[in-house]
Amino acid sequence: MLLTLVSLDDFFGRNMCLISFQWQPLSDQPLMMVANRDEFHERPSTQSHWWPEHPHVLAGKDLEAGGTWMGVTKSGYFAALTNVRQLPSHRQGQISRGHLVKDYLIAQEDPQTYAEGIADQAHLYDGFNLIIGNQRQCIFISNRNQHTQPLALHAGIYGLSNASLDTPWPKTLYAKKQLEMHAQGQNMTMPLLNRRQTYPQVEQPDTGIGQPWETLLSAPFIVSPSYGTRASSMLTIKQNHVEWIEQSFDHTGSLNHEVRESFYIKSI
Predict the structure, then answer these.
(1) pLDDT number for residue 145
(2) How far are the Cα atoms of 32, 44, 180, 221, 262 from residue 23, in angstroms, in the given order?
(3) Domain tally for the chain?
């Protein structure tokens, strides 16, 4: 069956991701995060870079709407975003969700305060899941599901796709397991979330998008001519140091660019 661009765009508003992260605020390494960015190949964007207009921000950029999906600052503030699958009739956002990440990274505001401001304006965005933090706090907020108010996360390993936090979709469970193995030194290969096989229909969620799309999107690393995993990222934040790796892929799933950054954290 033909998968059309219009059908997927109607349900998602385009960009989606798969994220897993280990949050340990009292350790020497507060954050380890891995993510796959899934997007239409036609949508223009840049690889991660230091933004000339905001030189403390390291992130990719969506050239269509101006936002971003994941990034970090020289002071160790971080943010990442996934979209929530929703019916076309529920889409009414006036502002691109990528601005939630961009604005936080630029402002480097207290995470709790920033999230509370989002909660007051959540109706301006289509469905989103947002993770923001620094070395001391990690906050999750969504305008769908049960976390429409800021949730301060305790230490643990979390998974996030296009439902609520830790919804046990097969790809989300896979991402958490891959990160756990990496943290234990058992899996050091990049990209970490590299499974390209889809899951059986009986294991897939039913989100209303139709079986062909459910199957294609069940893979942690998506490969198709029109839509797929365009980047895989790993962010590690230690007490005084940040490491960033981003690999970009073309429509065949072949690696075509890599960014590596390593820097010491600067106090604001």
Answers:
(1) 79
(2) 7, 32, 12, 23, 20
(3) 1
- Give residue 91's pLDDT: 57
Residues in the chain, pLDDT under 50: 1-7, 10, 13
Distance between CA atoms of residues 129 and 69, nearest Å: 11
pLDDT at 148: 87
- Which tokens go with 97? 């969700």
The b/e string for 123-152 (b: 16+ C-beta within 10 A; e otherwise) is eebbbbbbbbbbbebbbbbbbbeebeebee
Strands annotated E in the chain: 16-23, 31-40, 45-50, 57-62, 70-73, 78-83, 128-133, 138-142, 151-152, 156-160, 227-237, 241-249, 255-264
Q: What per-residue confidence (pLDDT) applies to 15?
A: 61
Q: What is the pLDDT of residues 12-25, one digit of tens each?
A: 545 679 999 999 99
Strands 78-83 and 128-133: antiparallel
Phi-psi region of 180 (alpha: psi -120 to 50; beta: other; left: phi over 0): alpha
Tokens of 24: 């340990």
Report the CATH number at residue 201. 3.60.60.10
Helix (H) or strand (E) holding 175: helix 170-183
Let me know if 159 is exposed, middle or buried by CB neighbors in 10 A (0-12, 13-18, 19+): buried
CA distance 211 to 108: 41
Domain ranges, residue 112: 5-264
Radius of gyration of the chain (CA): 17
Query: Residue 209 and residue 200: Cα distance in Å, rounded?
Result: 16
Q: Is the whole model's pTM more than 0.90, yes or no? A: yes
